[in-house]
Design goal:
The chain is an alpha/beta fold and 364 residues long. The protein contains eleven helices and ten strands. The chain is 40% helix and 18% strand. A hairpin with a 4-residue loop joins strand 1 and strand 2 (12-19). It starts with a strand and ends in a 22-residue tail after the last helix. The protein binds 5'-O-[(R)-(carboxyoxy)(hydroxy)phosphoryl]adenosine (KG4) and zinc ion (ZN).
Length: 364
């Protein structure tokens, strides 16, 4: 069964063809990062207009690369939420229109649920996820698992017992993990999006240089909070200032009347990142223990983070747990995860509208 997936929930225009929910035949992603960079964040109007201009070409390229004409596609799937309303509308309507015109079933997909199961897609396609021992990549054997979904808009910890059967254990009560990375990068006057820049600079920094708070790490719930950490970084910078990373770039000056130190921006990045990673890994492993699962997985843009991957890997190894991580191009927004999940979902009717703030929910 060949499914065409379409994803336009934020600033990526993407289409992909996936066979039987596992085999990626094509995976086309057109990123709008350069378009939004001058504004330091996604501008919804620009995003929607760009999706509209590109959607046709991206879908055509996905079908061409898969060498499957639309007549041989068995179903068409598109993201209906969560995301930016004006961006979602473009992909959802393109998908519905195409399905209607071609007489194909249409499947609406929840973006966060697609992220949740994306590490399974990778393992089933023969791309071994990090730390999965040879011969253990059978898709169904991964359940039950505890899964972290960490993106620019969400931070969710889930206990999943099968595809479509998951319970939310906790989520952020304020900023998402990716949002914290992006905001701290802005404070440090780094580029957009901030997560990859902070990750890169942190590699040359000392994670123990500054003791930033591990908010809610000791809280018995599985909820997260990252806005206090972002504020702690802000206050630190106001008090101490940092030395700019690039020769010639202007240093962020400390506030008048405070003592300037020679804190390196690399140290701020590494210390902030370590605080985020400690909380994410700490809670995920506590949940793995409480729910007695043997598999832990992570997905979403922040799961690209090198320190998160490293620490999750080390801690899972120590406990004999299997860790599933999607390859980088399946962690950030893509349509392969949409087409893959659609294989497991019933076709819906054409009246379904976008749902910009739909949650991950507790499907039956
Ligand atoms: O899943 P995603 O592509 O889009 C959403 O659905 O939000 O996630 C984007 C987020 C951004 O906040 C970005 O800064 C973050 O993922 N991100 C990272 C890294 N790469 C992307 N955060 C930390 N380290 C990275 N290497
Ligand atoms: Zn996403």
């Amino acid at each position: 069964m060949n499914i065409l997936g379409i994803e336009t929930s934020c600033d990526e225009t993407a289409a992909a063809v996936v066979q039987d929910g596992t085999r990626i035949l094509s995976n086309v992603i057109s990123s709008q990062i350069d378009l939004h960079r001058p504004y330091g964040g996604v501008v919804p109007e620009l995003a929607a207009r760009n999706h509209l201009q590109l959607i046709d070409a991206v879908i055509t390229e996905a079908l061409d690369k898969a060498k499957i004409p639309i007549t041989d596609i068995d179903a068409i799937a598109a993201t209906y939420g969560p995301g930016l309303a004006s961006s979602l509308l473009i992909g959802l309507n393109a998908g519905k229109g195409l399905a209607f015109a071609a007489g194909k079933p249409f499947v609406a997909i929840n973006h966060m649920e697609a992220h949740l199961y994306s590490p399974l897609l990778a393992s089933a396609t023969g791309v071994p996820p990090v730390a999965v021992p040879e011969g253990q990549a059978g898709r169904l054997s991964h359940f039950p698992m505890v899964s972290l979904i960490v993106s620019g808009g969400h931070t969710i910890l889930v206990h999943a017992t099968a595809i479509g059967h998951h319970e939310i254990l906790g989520q952020t009560v304020d900023d998402a993990a990716g949002e914290a990375f992006d905001k701290v990068a802005k404070l440090l006057k780094l580029g957009y999006p901030g997560g990859p820049e902070v990750d890169r600079l942190a590699k040359a920094g000392n994670p123990r240089a500054i003791a930033f708070p591990r908010s809610m790490l000791d809280d018995p719930s599985y909820n997260f909070s990252f806005s206090g950490l972002k504020t702690a970084v802000l206050y630190w910078l106001r008090k101490h200032g940092v030395v700019a990373p690039v020769p010639g770039a202007r240093d962020a000056a400390p506030a008048a009347g405070t003592a300037a130190t020679t804190t390196r921006v690399e140290d701020v990045c590494a210390s902030f990142q370590e605080a985020v990673v400690d909380v994410l890994v700490g809670k995920a492993l506590r949940a793995a223990e409480q729910y007695r699962v043997r598999t832990v997985s992570a997905s979403g843009g922040v799961s690209v983070n090198s320190r998160l991957r490293e620490k999750l890997g080390a801690e899972c190894d120590r406990r004999g747990l299997r860790l599933l991580l999607a390859p980088v191009n399946l962690c950030t927004d893509n349509a392969a995860m949409i087409a893959a999940l659609a294989f497991h979902k019933p076709a819906g009717d054409f009246s379904l509208d976008v749902a910009p703030s739909v949650g991950l929910g507790v499907p039956g």
